[in-house]
Structure formats: structure tokens, C-alpha cells
Prior knowledge:
By secondary structure, the chain is mainly alpha-helical. Helices cover 79% and strands 0% of the residues. The chain has 15 helices and no strands. The protein has helices at 2-13, 20-48, 55-83, 86-102, 109-137, 143-150, 152-171, 174-192, 217-243, 250-265, 270-274, 276-296, 300-327, 334-363, 365-386. The longest helix has 30 residues, at 334-363. It is globular and about 55 Å long. The protein starts with a helix and ends in a 9-residue tail after the last helix. 61% of the residues are buried.
Amino acid sequence: MIQTLRSRRTDEAAPSLLTPQFVAVALAALAYFTGDGILIAAVPRFVAGPLGAGNVAVGVAVGAFSVSAFFLRPWVGGVGDRRGRKPLLLIGAGLFAVSVLGYTTVSDPTTLAALRLLTGAGEACFFVGMVTTFTDLAPPERRGEAMSLASLSLYVGIGVGPMLGEFAIDRFGFTTAWLLAATAGLVALGLVLRVPETRPATMPAPARQRLVHPAGLLPGLVLLASILGMAGFLTFVPLYALDLGMSGSRLVLLTFAGVVVLIRSVGARLPDRLGAARATRLALLLSALGLATAGGWHAPVGLLLGAVILGAGVGLLTPSVFALAIERATESERGAVIGTTSAFLDLALGVGPISLGFVAASFGRSGTFLASAIVAVAGLVLVVVTRLGRAPRDR
């Protein structure tokens, strides 16, 4: 009873998290990632349909987005430490909108892949600016919770965006889908204009510019192991759902995103309560099980169940890994560490679809999920062997 009362008093005394600035950035992120979600459903169908290309081309078109983002994120993080977070958000939303408007002129996979590189550059700027802003606004003892709540915008967008995209494609065609996604990017740009700079005015400049921050490497590798599977899932589930006789992937993607949203809202404090390292291990295990279920059970119910389990793993993983990464950085190098860690997101989202495109061509689309499950298991082994989160933190 005494312990319960103390816990309640601690929660009541905890610094506020949902400030007006926090909510404003979350709404901008919601608009941005809704546009991104539209592209998740539309790009694979556009390549396989109007452009008439195969699985490898689908993987290249989807993965090209992350190639530019991968190389830019570490550099962008350093820019955010020196120049501020708001410029990154503005540039990111603007590049996204302009590049997606360009999709309306595409008539071949090569041109689409080139425009996807520009979209990826916008993603690098917006994502690093967003995560660093949320880190600036969150009390240190609630960063895991902050990452969970902040990322709700991303996964609500992934859930709602594909529904909007497939509706637009089925009723009006791909041009309407591109215009809808670009409009979402412009809405994000307008919301960011109203958000003040969050980089602490008293924060010292970094002692040196690090293109790759060592504190972000190990968390980044762990992130890679899980997100590669999610990348393959999001790339090929729009087509695999059709293979199984479903009318589309909207129900699967909505289920996946809904579980992630549930974990990161109702279970927002799980990374802080379980401990970031334990939550990371559990997340990788769930990701592997979900992918194996989706790939091994060749039926709509298997795909849906796999989406539920994978969603639980992804819901836990990203906030936990970013919490581990932030703890390993000084205040003046948060952007650099976040940039390095998040670059592995792009490596997964870039290499994953491209490499898994060859897997799909050789073993079928379900084989991409099984291969991804093996990679998630490898990530779990890496966390256990390196004892990530348990060793003394290198500052």
C-alpha cells in the first residue's frame, strides 16, 4: 500500500510531457506520415500495375527511398545539433511534398526510383528533426514514454494512409493518390511553421562534427535486424494479400498499425518499466514470431495473426532502442547519435526491399517474411551476446 501511494505521488509529480509544443509536433508528424502511408500502399501497386515491372523493380522503387536517407541522416543529425531542429522539419516536409508531386509525371521505374531518392532526403531531415525535437521536450525519466507517444503519429499514419491511398487508387487512380500524399506533406509544413525552435539556447556546440557517432552503432544494428523484417512486410504485403485472395492489404496494414498504436499508447511506459534492454529483447522475439507466422501460414488468418504479433514487436522495439541510444550520448550530441542510429532504419528500409525482392523472385512473396524472421533472430542473439543496455554506458 505504501509503495503504491509512493508510485502515485511520483507519477503526479512527474514533469509534464504533453505540452502544446509536443502536441503540435506530433500533429505535424501525423500529417507527414499519413502521406508516407499513402505511398506504402500505392508505390508497389504502381510499379507492378501501370509500369508493368516485376518483384525486383518493386523492391528497387520502394528501397530507393531509403538509400538517400541512409547517407544523409548522420550528417543531418549534426546539422540539427548546430543549427536547430526546426529547419530540418521544414526542409523535410517540403522535399517530401515536391518529390511526390513529381510522381504524377512518371512513366518508367527508373524515373520513379530517382524521385524516391529525393523523397528519402526529405525523410532523413524530417525524421531526425522530429525525434530530436521530442527528445528536447521530454523529461529524462520519461524519454521511453515520449518515444512511444511520439511515434503514434508515425503508425497512425501507416494505418490510415494505406486506406486513403487504396481508396483513392480504386476510385480515382494513382494521380489522385500522389496529390493526396503531397497535400499531407504540405499540411505538415504548415504545422511546423507554428512550432518554435526546441534546441536549448544554452546547449554547447558539439566539440567536433561526427558523421558517424559510435554510440549509435550498436543500437542501430539492433534496429536494423527488426526493421528489415517490417520493411519486407510493408513492401510485399500489398501484393501478397492479393495472392491469398484478399481484396487488398488495407485490413492487414490497419491491424498491424492498430497493434503498434495500442502498444505505444496504453503500453507507452513499458520501455521504462521493463527496462529498455529487456523490452528490446522481447520486441525482437515477437518480431521473429510474427514474420514466421505470416510467411509460414499461407492463409488470410495467418497473415492477420502475423501482423498482430509483428505489430507488438515493432511497437516495443523502436522506443526502447532509441532510449538506449539517447542514454549513450551527451546533450550536445543527441542529434548526431539519433542520426547514426536512425540511419539503420534507412539501411533496413533500403536494403530490405531490394534484397527481399530477389528472395521473392526465387522463393515467392511468403519467403520474404521467413527470411526476415531469421534476421530478427540474429538481432536477438546480438543483443544477448553484447549485453546491450547492461554494460556501463559509454558517454
